[in-house]
Structures are given as structure tokens and as C-alpha cells.
Amino acid sequence: MDFDFSDDQQQLRDAVRRWVDKGYTFERRRSIVEAGGFSREVWGELAELGLTALTVPEEHGGLGLGATDVMVVMEELGRGLVMEPLAQAFVAAGVLGKHADASVAGQWLPRVASGEALVVLAHQERQARSRLAVCAAKASKSGSGYTVDATKSVVPAGDAADAFLVPAQLDGKIALFLV
């Protein structure tokens, strides 16, 4: 087995590393923290690098790359202590790409890929204490859609997100809702 990164993955790593070194200085990070911890300007720069499109399927304007590519990017962003919730965008793109109906995927995935929309996972509940199977949120059928009754905490960039992936109990099972 060959565990070396491909040339494309090395180029991806180098591009992200260069951006972190030049574009995400300690002073910039400090000003972002003071402004609330999220910057649409930085999000736009990540989109220009193609990072918001990394895990979006190609048919929706993304690159359709996988977990190893994500790992390469996240390692470099972690090295630079980049706070923007790109991991959340990767999760959202994966979930929407695999499980959303065609109209929802067609509406949201191109916007996620371009960086226009920020979709984050809102799963943490106070009583759950990081146990994913604990979910007190409830959902019920309401007309042609659903009503979700939930209180979630610690939602990355929750004040800046355009939509949320919210798990809730529906008929005794946990279902995900795009809110």
C-alpha cells in the first residue's frame, strides 16, 4: 500500500499553507476574535481557494473530493488556528450530497460550493454532553413540511450561518432537517 499523498494533494496542502502563512496572521485572527469569531471576508478567501467546494459533488459545482483531501486541508488550517467552520461545510456538503432530495441539493449545494452559503451542523444539546445519540429535539409533520422544536448549543458560526442541519426525533428515530 502506498500511503504517500498524491501530487494533487501535495499541491492542495501547499496552497492552503501559503494562504495561512500570508493571509491568516496572528493580528488578523485576533481582530476576527474581537469581532465575534467569524469573518465573511475570510470565508470568501477560502471559497476563492476552492475549499468550500472541496466535498460538494461535481454535478453541483463542487470538486467532489474525499476524506484524505479534507484531512490535508484541515491539517493546514489547524496549523494556522483558522477559526472559520470549514469542517462544518464539509459535513453539510456530504450530508446534503448524499441524503437531500434533488431540489434541496440543487438549491443549496451550488451556494455552499461557491462560498455564498454557510450551512453548519446544529447538533449539540446541553443534556447530551457530546453523546450524538442523545437528542431531545422533536420534529413533527406540518402541512407539506415539518416543524422542528429544538434548542441547540455551541453551534459554530451560528450567528452567521445561512442554514443549519438539525437532528431531531421523528417517529422514534433521529432525522436531519435543513433549517
Secondary-structure blueprint:
Layout: H1 7-23, H2 26-34, H3 40-48, H4 67-79, H5 86-99, H6 102-114, E1 119-121, E2 138-142, E3 145-149, E4 163-170, E5 173-178
Parallel strand pairs: 1-4
Antiparallel strand pairs: 2-3, 4-5
Helix pairs in contact: 1-4, 5-6
Short synopsis of the structure:
With 179 residues, the protein is an alpha+beta fold. The chain has helices at residues 7-23, 26-34, 40-48, 67-79, 86-99, 102-114; strands at 119-121, 138-142, 145-149, 163-170, 173-178. The strands form two sheets. Strands 1-4-5 form a three-stranded mixed beta sheet, with helices on one face. The chain has a two-stranded antiparallel sheet with strand order 2-3.
Radius of gyration: 17 Å
Low-confidence parts lasting 5 or more residues at pLDDT below 50?
none
The structure class reads alpha+beta
Helix content: 40-55%
How many helices? 6
For the terminal residues, how far apart are their CA atoms? 42 Å
Q: Enumerate the strands of the largest sheet in spatial order, edge to edge or round the barrel.
A: 1-4-5
Shape: globular
Element string (H = helix, E = strand): HHHHHHEEEEE
Profile the largest sheet.
3 strands, mixed
Query: Percent of residues in beta strands?
Result: 15-25%
